[in-house]
Structure formats: structure tokens, C-alpha cells
Design goal:
The chain has 202 residues and is an alpha/beta fold. A five-stranded parallel beta sheet has the order 2-3-1-4-5, sandwiched between helices. The chain is 51% helix and 12% strand. The chain is globular, with a radius of gyration of 18 Å. The chain has a single domain, classed as P-loop containing nucleotide triphosphate hydrolases (Rossmann fold, 3-Layer(aba) Sandwich), CATH 3.40.50. The longest helix has 28 residues. Keywords: ATP-binding, Coenzyme A biosynthesis, Cytoplasm, Kinase, Nucleotide-binding, Transferase.
């Protein structure tokens, strides 16, 4: 069960297709307060936002849907196969996302709640968020398992899947930097065991 003696906030990270959403849901089911950076990232590029206007100025109208919202699949196809384009996108979105995330962290720390909070951020170390948390939890999966899960989940070819995996910090690097590690290379039963073991340490 979450600790009610002192309010703590932990960062949760891991590579793409490592199972972060599944683990975040486990935390939620166990009574933890949860947030995720994907929700924040969608907010900063919603229609009429500064973020979306800057993306269109950089990449053109081709990254928009007919209704004026961001076409994520088209943008992904551009940036995940070209390091320079990915850097351009990150220069636009990362500062906006970080501002929003830090606002939430500040609100949590300044609130009267005593429940433990988990904030899932895929690019936690890349964005230097670790200093704002009481600890960092990283998910790890074996590379081939990660590849197969990503190909199946996103219906990608092996080449495209590797491009997306290699565009991010390796899971071994994240594992070495984290305070806690959950190995999610197995099935859901094994994950539940790893999760139960982890929460006794928080």
C-alpha cells in the first residue's frame, strides 16, 4: 500500500514498449496518484496551441489532420527516420512539456495530500527530470522482447521499430541510472511479482 506518512513523488521511465502504461495502471489500482507525460505532450500540441503552431511552421501543413489537429503518425514518420528532424521537434516540444510537468510536480509537492505519486516520463533522464523526484523507477525488457512488442503494438516493420528504439536512450543506460528497476521481460504474472517486490521499497 502507498505510504501515508510523508508525501513522495517518484519518476517512472523505461524504453518504448517497455510496459510503462501497464505498470502505471498497477500503481493506480494500488491507490497511488498517477500522472503521465504523454497526456502533457498531447496538451501542448492541441489545436490553437503555441506548440502546434511552431510544429507546423517547422514541418509544414502536411503534419495536420483535416480538422487541424496534429497527425502524429505523419510527424513520427518524418522524425524517427531523421535525427536532425527529431532534434528540431524536441527543441519545440521539450521546453513546453517540461514547463507543464514542473507545474504539476510543484502542485503535488505543495498540496496537503500525503499519498505517494508516480509520474511516468519516457524521456525522464533525457529531460533531466530526475532531480525533481524522490527516486526514479525504470522498466527494463530484453531488446528482442522490446522489438517484438513494439512491432506488434504499432504494426511496424522491423526496420522502423529499430529506428524508434535507437532514437532513444538505451534501456541499459536507464537501468544503470535508476534507483529502482522492474524487469518486464516476462509475462503479466512475473510483472505482478516484480511490482509487489518494488512497492515494499517505496
Amino acid at each position: 500500500m502507498p505510504s501515508y506518512q510523508m508525501s513522495k513523488i517518484y519518476g517512472l521511465t523505461g524504453g518504448i514498449a517497455a510496459g510503462k502504461s501497464t505498470v502505471l495502471e498497477l500503481f493506480k489500482e494500488h491507490g497511488y496518484m498517477v500522472y503521465d507525460a504523454d497526456t502533457v505532450a498531447r496538451k501542448v500540441v492541441q489545436p490553437a496551441s503555441i506548440g502546434l503552431k511552431e510544429i507546423v511552421a517547422e514541418f509544414g501543413d502536411k503534419v495536420l489532420q483535416a480538422d487541424g489537429s496534429l497527425n502524429r503518425s505523419k510527424l513520427a514518420a518524418i522524425v524517427f527516420s531523421d535525427e536532425l528532424q527529431l532534434q528540431k521537434l524536441n527543441q519545440i516540444t521539450r521546453p513546453l512539456i517540461k514547463d507543464e510537468i514542473l507545474k504539476i510536480i510543484t502542485e503535488v509537492k505543495n498540496s496537503s495530500q500525503t499519498i505517494t505519486t508516480i509520474f511516468e516520463i519516457q524521456l525522464l533522464f533525457e529531460g533531466h527530470y530526475q532531480e525533481y523526484f524522490d527516486g526514479v523507477i525504470s522498466l527494463y525488457v530484453e531488446p528482442q522482447t522490446q522489438l517484438q512488442r513494439l512491432m506488434k503494438r504499432n504494426k511496424l516493420t522491423e526496420k522502423v521499430a529499430w529506428e524508434r528504439i535507437n532514437s532513444q536512450m538505451s534501456m541499459n543506460e536507464k537501468k544503470s541510472r535508476a534507483d529502482f528497476v522492474i524487469d518486464n521481460s516476462g509475462d503479466l504474472t512475473q510483472l505482478a511479482y516484480e511490482f509487489d517486490k518494488l512497492i515494499t521499497q517505496l
